[in-house]
């Protein structure tokens, strides 16, 4: 199943720039691993205000529990809130196979 996840990160006040850089580096590495495993399919950055961190991600997981495990494995999760929207195929999706004969 696929899920659209809105990930909003709030870095705590007083966090050093080095700590932020370290966790972002670990997040990038973990994202590559999740992509290689087929869990992280796409990432987008919507229009943002200065200082705002928000990412839209398309994830694949067997179920909501597995998705939670995947999201919890990401280093930025300690500063992040996630809004999860389960997705189901649309019959008119041009990339889908529904309706072909």
Kindly describe this structure.
The chain is α+β, with helices and mostly antiparallel strands and 101 residues long. It has a four-stranded antiparallel sheet with strand order 2-3-1-4. The protein has helices spanning 17-36, 64-72; strands at 2-9, 40-44, 53-60, 80-87. The chain has two helices and four strands, in the order βαββαβ. The chain has a single domain, classed as Dimeric alpha+beta barrel (Alpha-Beta Plaits, 2-Layer Sandwich). A hairpin with an 8-residue loop joins strand 2 and strand 3. Helix content is 29%, strand content 29%.
Number of helices: 2
Distance between the termini: 24 Å
The CATH class assignment is: Alpha Beta
Count the domains.
1
CATH architectural grouping: 2-Layer Sandwich
The poorly predicted ranges are none
C-alpha Rg, in Å?
16 Å
> What is the strand tally?
4
Helix content: 25-40%
Shape: globular
Keywords:
101 residues; alpha+beta; Alpha-Beta Plaits; 29% helix; 29% strand
């Amino acid at each position: 199943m696929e899920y659209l996840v809105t990930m909003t990160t709030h870095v705590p006040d007083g966090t050093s720039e080095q700590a932020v850089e370290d966790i972002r580096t670990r997040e990038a590495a973990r994202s590559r691993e999740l992509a290689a495993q087929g869990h992280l399919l796409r990432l987008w950055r919507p229009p943002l205000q200065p200082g705002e961190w928000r990412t839209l991600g398309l994830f694949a997981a067997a179920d909501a529990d597995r998705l939670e495990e995947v999201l919890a494995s990401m280093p930025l999760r300690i500063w992040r809130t996630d809004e999860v929207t389960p997705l189901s195929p649309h019959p008119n999706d041009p990339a889908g196979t529904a309706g072909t004969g």
